[in-house]
Amino acid sequence: MIQIIQRMFKTAWQGMKRNSWLSIACIVMMTLSLLIFSSILIFNHAANTLVNTLKEKMDITIYFKTDVPEEDILKIRDELLSDEAIAKINYVSKEDALKAFEERSKYNPTIQKALDELGENPLAASLNIKAKKTEDYNTIIESVKNSVFKDKLITVDLAENQKVVSRVDALAKAVKIGSLFAISVLACLSFIIGFNTIRMAIYSLKEEVEIMKLVGASNWFVRGPFLLEGALQGFISSISTTVIFSLLLLVFGGKIENFVPGLGLNVYFWSHFWFIFFLQTAFGIFLGIISSFWALNHYLKI
Amino acid sequence: MSLIYFKNVSKSYNDSLILDNVTFTVETGEFVSLVGRSGVGKTTLLKMLIREELPTKGKIYFNDKEINKLKLQEISLLRRKIGVVFQDFKLLSNKTAFENVAFAMEVAGYSEEDIKKDVPEVLKLVNLQNKADNFPYQLSAGEKQRTVIARALIQRPELILADEPTGNLDPINSWDIIKLLVKINELGTAVMLASHDKEIVNTLGKRVISLEDGKIIRDEQEGRYLI
Questions:
Q1: What does the H/E/C string look like for B22-79?
Q2: The predicted structure's pLDDT at residue B227
Q3: SS3 of B169, please?
Q4: Chain A contact probe: residue of B103, B137, B158 with most A CBs at under 10 A
Q5: Are B123 and B150 in contact (CB under 8 A)?
Q6: Which residue from A33, A100, B31, B132 has the highest number of Cβ atoms inside 10 Å of its Cβ?
Q7: Nearest Cα residue to A25 out of A33, A281, B93
Q8: Contact between B107 and A216 using a beta-carbon 8 Å cutoff
Q9: Across the interface, do B93 and A216 touch by the CB < 8 Å criterion?
Q10: For residues A218 and B76, is the Cβ–Cβ distance under 8 A?
Q11: Count of alpha carbons within 13 Å of A82, Cβ hemisphere only?
Q12: Which residue of A has its CA nearest to B153?
């Protein structure tokens, strides 16, 4: 058994070396397939990151009237925190609000002059509420609108947040469905590219296979080295895909990050390196073996 | 028990009758020439012996085993007992002469030690010991054919089928090949030679089966190829 396996590996490796141009063509096409496959993985992550970033930026801010004492606001905060839908609440006092406003507008002399003329702090204290799920924002807004302390509020930013919540939810769903569709289509496409290349390679070796059978080789004796060759090509393609991807990210990763901050492609790729490499390799080997098996079965009746 | 027994064998392709009710036997160690013009069914007859074709009617036996009824695995085993020499050589283009011959042993499960011992001996027998590392494209037609004979011989088959082995060779190389086949036959292996080379067949002075219109018209022990 060991002898048979050793022979299969030796024949597969010999076949790849001696039909080097054919092997290179197969590896190049499979690398292309795997690049598409890996891009899908990265794209999926990027899409999810974008959506999550948008979701994180969402919040509800409730502004209190200027005469509401701080301890009342803090009590309201503690009451709201008991709602399971709320993740966290940040209290911004009038003084903190003014400091932040002055910092943001320090290069705007008109606003600085207006504040000086006013003499007092015109800004209101607020509670900044983040929900655990975006779908809960509307419910939270409704409950605040109907709460016992509604008379102490100036505004809750109802209209805009509702629109943003709906849009972000719709976008998240569209991204999920779109990603799934893109993944399916591109995965099929990449499979077909690799499959056809290997199929043609094996068809070109039709005569060799017929000779082997005439000399008395059993079907598995003929099949084995071809399947191994397919698997080896898949493995080598996976390595070349990983090298190409790493280089692309090294060169363009920073630029993409500048363009779309928070995308974290580099971080994602390197932190999930082995996972991506494993999936790629598995896909490549699977593609190599299935393509070889089908071609041998279909064209050469093995 | 005859080595080969063709019993009322007919073969048609669509409506075209190639072989018509052919019956004959071949004994162990016999040398038989199959003659007839091109297209008369010589190659078809040989292909049926290695189960590359199935007869339309009739039965074919090799060592008392009916070839028609062999299972897939048994076909591989049959082909290891029958060495075949083709007109177009049929060598594996990405293997050297040594590897082509060794392939026949690998297929049968021989160990590396046996292969390293036997293959050089057989290559010496066909005078190719200095060409062992050459690929087929680096060999002449005569050398290719001798490699094929070496591959056919290596498993010590009971029968060698030679289908127009000299078809692509010059006269000198042709005779070298025929002499090799005769030498192999003298060592005990049966040989069936399909040929339309009148001179070779008549010089051999062996049994000749003549085919015409799909039928055996003559079967003589010291036969001649008569046109």
A1: EEEEECCCCEEEEECCCCCCHHHHHHHHCCCCCCCEEEEEECCEEHHHCCHHHHHHHH
A2: 61
A3: coil
A4: B103
A5: yes
A6: A33
A7: A33
A8: yes
A9: no
A10: yes
A11: 6
A12: A215
* CATH number for the domain running over A59-157: 3.30.70.3040
Query: Per CB distance under 8 Å, which residues of A are interface residues toward B?
Result: 3-4, 7, 14-15, 18-19, 207-208, 211-219, 221
Any idea which fold B4-220 has? Rossmann fold (3.40.50)
What's the pLDDT tens digit per position in A175-192? 778 877 877 887 788 778
Reported residue count of chain B is 227
User: Rounded CA gap, A224 and A296, in Å?
Assistant: 11
Q: CA B63 to CA B131: how far, in whole Å?
A: 36
> What's the number of CA atoms in the CB half-sphere (13 Å) around residue A39?
14
The label of the residue with tokens 């509702």 reads A162
* Whether B151 contacts B100, CB under 8 Å: yes
| A215·B72 Cβ contact <8 A | no
Task: Determine how many CB atoms are found less than 10 A away from the CB of residue A37.
Answer: 24
Contact in structure between A8 and A212 (CB atoms under 8 Å): no
| A237 within 8 A of A284, measured Cβ to Cβ | yes
ipTM comes to 0.89
- Tell the burial category of A175 from Cβ atoms under 10 Å away from its Cβ (0-12, 13-18, 19+): middle
User: Which residue in this structure is represented by tokens 């990449």?
Assistant: A190
Domain ranges within chain A, ordered by starting residue: 2-54+169-300, 59-157
Assess contact for B2 and B27: CB atoms under 8 A: yes
What pLDDT was estimated at residue A148? 85
Q: Quote the pTM value.
A: 0.75
- B172-192 per-position pLDDT tens digit: 889 999 999 999 999 999 999
**Nearest CA-CA distance, residue A208 and chain B, Å:** 6
Name which residue leads in pLDDT, A266 or B101.
B101
CA B38 from chain center: how many Å? 17
Instruction: Specify which of A105-119, A189-203, B198-212 reaches the highest per-range mean pLDDT.
Output: B198-212
